[in-house]
Amino acid sequence: MVDEEKEEQNFAQLFEESTKRKERRFFPGDVVEGRVIQIGKENVFIDLGGKSEGTVDLQEFRDEEGNLNVREGDSVELKVVSVRKGIHLSKSIKPRGAEALEMLRLAHQNRIPVEGRVAALNKGGFEIDLAGLRGFCPLSQIDLGYCEKLEEHLNARYTFRVTEIGEKGKNIILSRRVLLEEEQEKRAQATLAKIQPDMILDGKITRLMDFGAFVDIGGVEGMVHVSEISHGRIKHPSEILAAGQAVKVKVLRIEAEKGGRPRIALSIKALEPEIWDQGFAFREGDVISGRVTRLVDFGAFIEIARGVEGLVHISEISYEKIPHPSRALKEGQAVEVLVQKIDPENRRISLSIKDAAIKQKMPRDAAAVREVGQILQGIVEDQKPYGLFVRLPQLGMNVRGLLPLEELLEGDKGDLKKKYPRGKELTVEIIALEEDKIRLSQRSMKEKKDREEFENYLQKEGRGPKLGTLGEALKRALK
């Protein structure tokens, strides 16, 4: 009894569904889905459901070499061309023979695409062969954007929308751009429905502007701000990107606009590995090449690797005191810098230009032994009322000595800042070592030189090879 009731319910349901299917009507221009049920000599028969069948010209399912690319049972999407004397379907209308003009009018009325071949280039547009009829496609309607190489379209087979058709088939105006825009809009809607922040997408550069690059990510454009193109600082996107270039982008955010279409912010650099995580090819104490990227009141930022900047404090630019970094540097200038400190935690690098100059002057065996009587090349670092502090690169980067005022040459004990400006190179002698303190002298070198010259003179005169101090020698000479 229960089984009989179920059978009656199933039968009633099937009857109701079959009734609904019979009520379905088709109109020219409808897009329908069907299943191939039979392949004949000239036509392919399509089951549209609801006991409705349509036919398609067999030639529409052959490729350029004549091979059939459909089988019985395949699902296909087609357009309704006509409902007179049966349902006639097509992938796109291909006008043929005497029926061509009638089919073109039908395509115009129902906005059905037609297929044609670009036969020739005329003034203002292209001549399109519509299997016996001639149509015209204006230059602006052959593609989405401006077409630079018109000859690339010759002999190409495209689908077109009939936008205008005159009497007796004259003045058939076609547009390919309309169909491309419709297809692009479909892709855009599909893309917008699925994209979310943090997604990684394939895209193509469409336009480069001063502030960034526009990227097609599937029928819709997103924008990569210039700051999101590279970890390195760039002034214009064209330094790295070009129109038409394929790129991978990360979706940063999606913001609603007044027009309804969302604004999509993208990033290229977000997909590039951070150099801080990879490690550097240089270490603290190394002298490396860089480029000045920015000048600020307190110093200069130097790009020392792609995406990595270090700071040269204004006090590390020159030994001479300068009011602003622009007095010594300019943006884009190549410089040599010494890496003073790398701070991975705060991602900061301290650099020095003046130390780089010192390091480059240091001999390879910079860790020379300190000893009294040693003659060295020094660099004035600071002036004090009691003397000069002198850097001694030959003994190490941070080794300094004091050149007391009394150890200067007699004629040089005037205005120290004028006679011995910071950065001035001079020759000094170590005259005393006390723990980490080094006492220097110029006067002792002068006296030693005078003594040697005088001894050489006496030797030539035959007055003895050795003498005491210079003062004693002078006394003897006077006697």
Structure description:
This protein has 479 residues and is of the alpha+beta class. It folds into five domains: 31-89, OB fold (Dihydrolipoamide Acetyltransferase, E2P) (Beta Barrel); 97-181, Nucleic acid-binding proteins (OB fold (Dihydrolipoamide Acetyltransferase, E2P)); 202-271, Beta Barrel (OB fold (Dihydrolipoamide Acetyltransferase, E2P)); 277-358, OB fold (Dihydrolipoamide Acetyltransferase, E2P) (Beta Barrel); 362-446, Beta Barrel (OB fold (Dihydrolipoamide Acetyltransferase, E2P)). The chain is 20% helix and 36% strand. It has eight helices and 25 strands. It has helices at residues 2-23, 100-110, 177-194, 275-278, 353-361, 416-419, 443-461, 470-478; strands spanning 31-39, 43-49, 52-57, 75-82, 87-90, 114-122, 125-130, 133-138, 157-164, 173-175, 200-209, 212-216, 221-225, 246-255, 263-267, 287-296, 299-305, 308-313, 334-343, 348-352, 375-384, 387-391, 400-404, 425-434, 437-441. The chain has a five-stranded mixed β-barrel. It has a five-stranded antiparallel sheet with strand order 8-7-6-9-10. The chain has a five-stranded mixed β-barrel with strand order 11-12-13-15-14. Strand 21 (375-384) and strand 22 (387-391) form a beta hairpin. The longest helix has 22 residues, at 2-23. The mean pLDDT is 81.
